[in-house]
Amino acid sequence: FFFFFFCSVFMPCVWGILGSGHISNDFCNALLACKSNVQAVGASTVAKAMKFAQEHGIAEALDYAGVVSHPQINTVYIGTIHPMHKAQALMCIGAGKHVVCEKPLTLNARDTEEVLEAAKAKGVFFLEGMWTRFFPAIKFMSETISQGTIGTVMSCHVDFGFVAPPSAERLFDVEQGGGALLDIGIYSLATSALGFRGQKLKKTSAVGIVEKGADTTFSAVQQYESGGTVTMTCCVRANMTNTLQLLGTKGSLYLESPFHAPTTVRVRVGTERTECQPDAVHSFPLPNACAGQPDLIFPNSQGFQYEVQAVEAAIEAGKLECEEYTLDETLHFAQVMDSIKRQLGVVYPGEVVK
Questions:
Q1: pLDDT tens digits for 320-334?
Q2: What are the b/e assignments for 119-150, b being 16+ CB within 10 Å?
Q3: Model confidence, pTM
């Protein structure tokens, strides 16, 4: 056991990628920009894996099982669609691999807890890929709050919305884990919660629009034990500001768009209704993407590099999770999303309505 633990934890990461879609494209770019060792990619067909491998200069193209069983690979990134995450994560854990699994980890809290308990029992590193938490702008936001610069946070407002293109049909298909909540609502939940760290969430109330079983729009109001509130709206049918604002007793903080991958934070300090100080603008430029690779698909995907660096540092230090986004938080937000799903009437295949 000690030999396995030493070799799997303290050895440098050798990556395998599961999935050859858009998100895997962007994450792979980050791995290569960080000079990480990417050994193989696995896809639903070897032909798809070969195309991805050729485009990104990866040595091996395999099926999913081939990546997981590869003797040189010790860390796997899961970038497949939501309903595949649970089985693939458990397969990786069973093989003793460290795992970074795209969010949402699973479709519900029950399955999320099963995966997390398996990772703990096996003693492997695990992270649900909430890349937002690793951005320097988010760390600056957390520090600003903890230092009391804007006082006690009283409320937070966040919205996230876009008009989903025809190519994103999975967003409207419950069989593929579709819906605004699981796809983008999780960003609003996990980022707004930073304004109320250490507090118990008392209540979440939600309403929304459900089309063919998938939520295409939802709005939620939350209250923490201090009385502080969060209001959020997420939508895959309309463009929104994609910003987050925290209002405190001494000032306010504003994450410019896209708040889930931010590069600019505005802080305003003052308590007079007409005499607040001008905004202090704090910029955090993105690192360069890896040259010679396919174009990035999603906004500010260079920011995946922050996550990659944190994961590799944690694994090489013998840690089994990242402090930026812990396993407890992963389970907590899965439970919150279950509550919202119940209120919206969203049920995924195989789920039991309680």
A1: 999 999 999 999 999
A2: beebebbbbbbbbbbbbbbbebbeebbeeeeb
A3: 0.95
